[in-house]
Design goal:
By secondary structure, this protein is mostly beta strands. The chain is built from 1 helix and 4 strands; from the N terminus they run E-E-E-E-H. It has a two-stranded antiparallel sheet with strand order 1-2. Strands 3-4 form a two-stranded antiparallel sheet. The protein is elongated and about 55 Å long. The protein starts with 12 loop residues before the first strand and ends in a 7-residue tail after the last helix. The relative contact order is 0.28. The mean pLDDT is about 95.
């Protein structure tokens, strides 16, 4: 599954974990993506969408 939302474009971001002693370690923050069947241009399509888009109603799920 690709790490990108097809609606909002949210994708993996990179940063550092910083410990109390200021030791820095690389990390990745991945979006919470789900594969859903949704309506797109009047057709049922499988889409990879983040849960924020599903909750906010930006995606009309097909049953």
């Amino acid at each position: 599954m690709a790490n990108r939302c097809e609606i909002c474009g949210k994708e993996t971001s990179f940063g550092k974990n910083v410990s109390n002693s200021n030791h820095r370690v690389n990390r990745k923050r991945r979006p919470n993506l789900k594969q859903v069947k949704a309506w797109k241009d009047g057709k049922k399509v499988k889409m990879t969408v983040c849960t924020d888009c599903i909750k906010s109603g930006k995606v009309k799920k097909a049953i």
